[in-house]
Specification:
31% helix; Factor Xa Inhibitor; 3 domains; serine-type endopeptidase inhibitor activity; alpha+beta; flat; two-stranded antiparallel sheet; two-stranded antiparallel ribbon
Length: 248
């Protein structure tokens, strides 16, 4: 309506963006992920790396987004229309979708800063949106620590090859109720999935209904490493046996 300064949420956009009407139809993380992929053409990781966008309308809808700087899901107020796919109705849904984003060292999360001088030094910085080390030109003074002499040094510091999902790094929290439910959590100390008793409410996201589901999410890399180590040990044994037979 002309002259009305209040923007009414566009229900046609709600169908496209899927976070006003359609999201209420999807309660499982897999269904939400499929929706994101089919409607936006985005993978879950790409969704989580989008910058927060409140939209241009004036509704007051508490939502959650993945903050690449804090590396966790945080609340924001959604205006009701436009925006982007980094927009979840609950912190649990946000974390289920974004748990695969690896932890990044603090200095790598700083934005690109060319400094206040005017030199043109070829440098590299870690881009939290693309999750890649990218080239930029450094002015020669000031700036910040997200500034590497080479792409290799940037990759080695900011993109460690061994990383586990964020959800697996949550501390063990048994909850605050009085039930006794056997669950499993990933222990960073032992690098294994271990049983604990969940009280039924509250707690952290490092909480799995079975040891297998915990292993599938958190211990996959260490599991593969153990398999490779066993294969290597067998190979060494065979080589030793062959060498001994040859000497005889």
């Amino acid at each position: 309506m002309e002259g009305n300064s209040r923007c009414t949420p566009d229900t046609s956009q709600a169908r496209v963006f899927g976070f006003i009407k359609m999201e209420s139809l999807f309660t499982g993380g897999l269904l939400l992920t499929s929706l994101l992929q089919s409607v936006f053409g985005l993978k879950p990781k790409e969704v989580c790396l989008l910058q927060v966008d409140e939209g241009h309308c004036r509704a007051y809808l508490p939502r959650f987004y993945y903050n690449t700087m804090s590396q966790d899901c945080e609340e924001f107020i959604f205006g009701g229309c436009s925006g982007n796919a980094n927009n979840f109705e609950s912190i649990q849904e946000c974390r289920k979708t974004c748990y695969t984003i690896p932890k990044i060292p603090q200095i790598c999360r700083f934005p690109r800063d060319m400094g206040t001088c005017r030199a043109l030094h070829k440098r590299f910085f870690f881009n939290m949106t693309s999750m890649q080390c990218e080239q930029f030109f450094y002015g020669g003074c000031n700036g910040n620590e997200n500034n590497f002499q080479s792409q290799q040094s940037c990759v080695e510091y900011c993109m460690p090859s061994k990383s586990i999902p964020v959800i697996c790094q949550d501390v063990l929290d048994k909850g605050k109720c009085s039930a006794s439910i056997p669950r499993y959590y990933y222990s960073s100390a032992t690098k294994m999935c271990e049983e604990f008793i969940y009280t039924g409410c509250g707690g952290s996201n490092n909480n799995f209904v079975s040891k297998q589901s915990c292993m599938d999410v958190c211990a996959r890399k260490s599991k593969k490493w153990k398999v490779r180590r066993k294969i290597t040990s067998r190979k060494l044994q065979r080589l030793a046996q062959n060498a001994q037979a040859h000497l005889q």
